[in-house]
Amino acid sequence: MAEAHQAVVFAFNITDQGIQFEFDKDALHQVWRSGVRAYKKRYAGFKNRLRNGIYPAKPGSLLTTMLVMILATMFGNDLSLGYVKLLNPVVVKYLGVVPPHDTYVSCALIACGLWLSAILLYKQLIGCLLAYHGWMYEAHGRSISWRTKVWSVLVKLLVSCKRAGLYSFQGALPRLPVPNVDDTIRRYLVSMEPLLSDDQMAEMRQLADEFKSKGTAKKLQFYLRLKSWWAPNYVSDWWEEFVYLYSRDPIMVNSNYYGIDAIFVRPTRVQAARAANVSWSMLQYWRKLSREEVKPLSINDTVPLCSWQYERLFATTRIPGDERDRIMHLNDAKHIAVYHAGRYFKVYFYYAGRWLEPCELEQQFQSILNDKSAPAAGEADLAALTAGERRVWARARRDFFSRGANRTSLDAIERAAFVLALDEESADYDPEDDSQLDRFAKSLLHGNGCNRWFDKTFTLVVFANGRIGFNAEHSWADAPVLSQLWEETVITSDIVPGVGYNSDGHCKGSPKGTVPNPIRLQWDLSASCRDVISSQLRVATNLLNDVDLHLVVHTQFGKGAMKTCRMSPDAFVQLALQLAYFRDSGGQFCLTYEASMTRLFREGRTETVRSCTNQSCEFVRAMESGNASKADLIRLVRAAADKHQTMYRDAMTGKGVDRHLFTLYVVSKYCKIQSPFLEKALHCQWKLSTSQTPHGQTGKLDLRNSPDSISAGGGFGPVSEDGYGVSYIIAGEDTIFFHISSRVSCDLTNSRRFGDQICRALQDLKNLF
Known about the structure:
Elements: H1 2-6, E1 10-15, E2 18-23, H2 25-54, H3 59-74, H4 83-95, H5 101-130, H6 134-137, H7 146-158, H8 181-192, H9 198-213, H10 216-230, H11 236-245, E3 257-260, H12 271-291, E4 298-299, E5 303-304, E6 316-319, E7 326-329, E8 335-340, E9 343-348, E10 350-351, E11 354-355, H13 358-370, H14 384-387, H15 390-400, H16 404-414, E12 419-422, H17 435-445, E13 458-462, E14 468-472, H18 479-494, E15 519-520, H19 527-545, E16 547-554, H20 559-564, H21 569-584, E17 592-597, E18 606-610, H22 614-625, H23 630-652, H24 658-670, H25 676-681, E19 688-692, E20 714-716, E21 724-731, E22 735-743, H26 751-768
Parallel strand pairs: 8-12, 12-13, 17-19, 19-21
Antiparallel strand pairs: 1-2, 3-14, 3-20, 4-5, 6-7, 8-9, 9-15, 10-11, 13-14, 16-22, 17-18, 21-22
């Protein structure tokens, strides 16, 4: 009712003396402020688009160019090489400018043309430089070709990510190239050699030959190349649509992932203060993103990466549909949605024309924690709708949330900047009891099935003892984007001693004005609606009870020791995973997925590195045989590591296997063409699905002075019913975190056992050197 009262801007009464108007000045003032803020955002957006369009030039440089051209002409130096005189008659005839002003206008037009030409030439040159990836294959001590040397000099002269805006290089980034079909098929067949029997390999080769010889591959490739010329990226839209949005399975565990606190430090134990400080830091980061003040990520501070995925980081929600979900993104929001003790609240962070301070947010969050009112019937389990079957949620949303209080309250959640969950339980890390960290991670991955809003881009979770983490929806972007947000707002800001908290653990500062009260969201959930919520909760409960999640904090050695072995840390870990799986499975290899990024290209997302190779299998067999000499083992492990690094570089530069096969398969379905080769190639199980969480993306981590300020990374649920999901983060010089998931219902897997095998394999690899 309070919101409804405030919404009445004016009222009028008809009396015998005429019509009397009564204005609510505060409401009118808020309307005015909202309009001004909206126009400011539009102006800022226009200014950013202009800046990105003319980068690296500045608007003032156009005026300078015009003045130089005009002054030079006035003093008898025609810098236009005679084009001013040729243009004067045109200016007089069509613009009606009389001499001598026609000369000035001609100079200005020619200067403008030269200025735009220089910008276009720069962008074309940058595009050509960024399309060259030979440097990736010549790094790390190998001989450098003259092409790469020239490229390096030009890039350092022309590309400066330090003064660029977030999207300054978007237009110059190359399109993801479509690989040659023959090359993709060859790479695919080679990747399957260590996994298939001779008869199975012969069958796959025959299917591949038929796919090529019957003209199917050529036809599908033609349409794919056609799309690559038209679309910014020939993979990303189909990947988002068919891999994520068309899936009807629950997204909890199956798709969503989580991130965990910096477990070696604890800035405060006050729940409301931690929630306020982290929320405020995240919102300030969103403010910088909106203004494009965040610098684009780059490789070696030189080669920029695509920034497209940042656009939907905040104020974005996945909306369920009967056959396909959709992503709703808003350009602006003034509130966050807060969940606590089974109730939902709307909390404003922008009020009365200003952004609230952390201490003011803490005041609001504390009032929610102090509120002991009971949840409405069905409210406590409401988020189970987002955890269960997508079709059921879509029908429930349409039947029970399309009008009235339910619609208003659901809008408040879906249109929030993000969701904050203030948990009643505590979570922590105890080196003497690793089960506590396992429970910590499980709470972030799925909670109790109804205390995380799984449709939101991310739910920030703050536990009763001040520990934090997040649960993130996967369709809108990949984990490195959330990882960067986490690093910007938590690792390099929130946990820094003396920055955000007083000695008593509360946020620094004092309120600067009126702080609005949290608004309790109202629900009218019928018995039929509550039945649907209960059924979805049962689905979610069965799913989360089947998750076996274990975290390994490996502190025996880390990146520093791996580098002394003259091996890529990622290749080192991947080979350890192959050795560990071979031991865990009783002498078997499996199809292994490692996620790689393709953000060197416009709107790039991920590609697959098939980490189980002939070389890695040869090394593992030799290692387990006990007959190979140390020299032979070192030779084999280096060959396997080199092969892995080459495949990783191939994946990053658009020469991967799986995204190309996936898009060929999509085209075949549109063309109604049956391809036995594509059907078989795309329906193999990834029994070992792995991903490395990036660390130190922002360049702001100071591990020398604050070695404990490292992120523990995050993880995801098992991809295969009888396999493992392994996420790892190589944090600092001496620590690696592994997040290992599997199914409780599978007798063949055990996450803790596999974690022990990983630690053993890491030590065995290190002992080789």
